[in-house]
Design a protein that fits this description.
single chain, alpha/beta, Nucleotidyltransferase, domain 5, 3 helices
Amino acid sequence: MNFRKRHKEQPEVETGALSDILFFLLMFFLMISTLASPDAIKVLLPESSTASSPPKDVVKLSCDENKNFFIEGKPVPFEQLETALAEQKTIKNAETLVIRIEKNRTIQDMTELYDMATRLKLGIVLAADKKKQ
């Protein structure tokens, strides 16, 4: 008796067509994703009829290393600084004070300038020098 095993054929799945289909799907989704913009959501922004326009001009104040103060480039003694700032504020109709102060000045000097600006109801911007390379 011949008891040999028969060689059964193993089932195989052809993956060549599957890889083609996956490639086409990948290309399709990549092309569609570049067309869809994340900024496409339309948002209604609020509007105001009573909003004031930003100030047209600012008052520029600078202080050097010897604690000499300059408003718009003109020297002003510290005792008259607040009145000179108030005059410039009314002349220019400004709401912002730009302060340029030397970096070796103390925090107390800066606090005095902030207090003056607060009493005059001026917004403050601290100007800085460019970083030296």
